[in-house]
Every structure is written in structure tokens, then in C-alpha cells.
Amino acid sequence: MTLVIRHLKLYLKKPTNIILSFLSSGVILSLYFLFIREFTIKAVSDYGFNSQYNELFVDRLMTSGLLIVIGATSVLSIMFIFVKDRYSGLIKDFLVTPISDWKILYSYFFASFFISMMITIFVYFGIELFFLIHYQDQRTVYQMIASIFTIFCSNMIASLIILIIALFIHNFTSFSTFETLYGVVIGFFTGVYIPIGYYPALIRNIFFYFPLCQTTSILRTIQTGSITSQILKNYPKEQHHVLYEIFGVHLTFQNQVISLEKQWKMVFVAIILLNLFLFLYIFRKKYKKR
User: Is CB count within 10 Å lower at the N or C end of the chain?
Assistant: First the structure.
């Protein structure tokens, strides 16, 4: 707990860290409203879906994906502290204290997870306020709890993934390069910048195994459920899969639609496997010392 507080204090010590974190979230949302929104609304109409709910559907669809991206990128600031501590040799100083390797490593995880949740939840409620004012569209308590829990799991996975990658990066330059690359590709991996159904089948099948692609789909299902039923009301069932699959509400693998239950299983398995990797890493490190 002491180390977690130490990491958070280092992060909060510089007001620019907080400003840049929220600014980057604002930039991501602005990019959507300026460049992606109209294209996606037109794409929905081009597939034959003409409804008064099209704009609401697209805004719910895309902001759901953007919340996952914001959570996934906001973990990077704390992980930069981790790389800095390793590079400066400070972690070696921690190791001579009674604090175990587990606590040292997971302190960075918990700190990055806390920051990502703080930023993402703030943005989430800001987005909900936008929908309430602009569309008079209000989520139920159940939908809000389900959305926050999905964000919780997604941010946990993102923090674990970045921590594992950071274990193999030993200098600032490499991490900065990775940070830039990660910020660019994460939106494509989750089907946020381009709807997942637009990718070739091979790419879709590869992205399917990326856990944040699953959490994006789950959050979209929660956020658009009542809207899609309104859009599809006057359309034959054979056409329903187009709206769901092309725009990444539902995921398919080898032409099979994956149920929400299976997606949640994949998310929990991903969390277990990532923690198992960290366990094996620490165990191997301890074994080498002997």
C-alpha cells in the first residue's frame, strides 16, 4: 500500500500529468466527433438502416469503444514511472527492503489501474451527461453498473498487459516509442477507428484474441441494446446480423457469432493468464537468484 501511494504521489506531484491525461481523453473524443462520426452514421445508412435512432446508435457505439481506448492508454503514465525506476536502479533499492517482489511489481499495477479507473469513470459520466442533455437518453442503474464493471475488467487487463510489456523494456526511448505506437494501434485493434466488420476475415480472427476487443464488444452490447431493437424493428431478421457484426456490437469467429457469456469467459481467462504470467516471471526471477 505504501508503494502504491508513493507511485500515485509521484504521478499527482506534477499537475501536467493530470492535465495531459484528461487532455488526451479530450483529443480522442474530439477526433471521433470531428472525423469519424459522420462517416459511421453514413455507413449505417448506406447499409439500409434509416432510423431516427441512427445518430444515437452510432454515438453510443463509438463512445463505448473510446472509453476502452481511454482506459487502455491512461495506464501508461504510471508505467513510465515503473520504467524510470528500473532504469535508475531504484527497484533494486526496493528489493533490499523487507518488501517482496510481488508487492513491488503489483504496486505499479494497482497504481496504474487506479489512475485509469479515475480518468475513465470521470469521462464515462461526462459522456452519460452528454447523452442525457443531447438525446434525453438515460441508462438504467443496471446498465450503468454493467458498463462500469466492464470498464473495470478492461482497465485491469490493460494495466496487466502494459506492465508485462514494460518488464521487457529497459530504457525511456524504447518505452516512449512503444507508447506512441500503442496509442495509435489500440483504436484499430479494438475496432474503434474502423468498424471491426470492415476488416478482412483473417484480421478479424486475429484481433478476436485481443482481450480489449472483447471488452469493447461487451460494452457496446450493453450501451446499444435498447437502441438496436428500435432500429431493427422494421427490418427482417436476416438483416439484423449486418448491424450487429459489421459495426462490432457482436464479434464473430470463423463465421460464428460469439455469445456474451463466452466473451465474459474469455475476459476472465485473460485476467487469470496475465496474472499467471506475472507469477511465473517473479518465480523465475527468484529461482535465478538462488
Answer: C
